[in-house]
Amino acid sequence: MIRTAVRDDVPTILRFIHELAAYERAVHEVKATEEDLARDLFGPAPAAQVLIADDDAGRAVGFALWFTTYSTWLGRPGLYLEDLYVTPEARGAGHGRALLAELARIAVERGHGRVEWSVLDWNEPAIGFYKALGATPQDEWTVYRLTGEALAALGAR
User: Fold this and answer.
1) Is pTM beyond 0.85 here?
2) Which of 4, 30, 104, 149 is deepest in the core (most CB within 10 A)?
């Protein structure tokens, strides 16, 4: 079952974020707290939305965190999938596909032109999964990021 997350899901969402970061070998980079997630996901101006995958027993086994983007070339909004995670013991049961299918349904229902996300180049299982769904890599683009001191320095000018 796929459902929209509620404020009571914040501890579970943060646990999933930590588990995903551990899988991606970057747990030291997670700074988010429950307070951050409650404010930014369930406050007066949510920055992102979350879908939760529950198993047959009603236990949360995965999540998708996404937000709206805009394509000037398409002249339409899109959805950016920031995180997709299914617990190891629940993988292979269709939860990841169900989360992406619900995200695609939302995009189509809202008239959005695309759903996009990034995947680590070494994550072959995820790459194979995404390609099997019909997703195509955008190899000609390189992601750039400003953060930390570089972000602060540029913003101070």
Assistant:
1) yes
2) 104
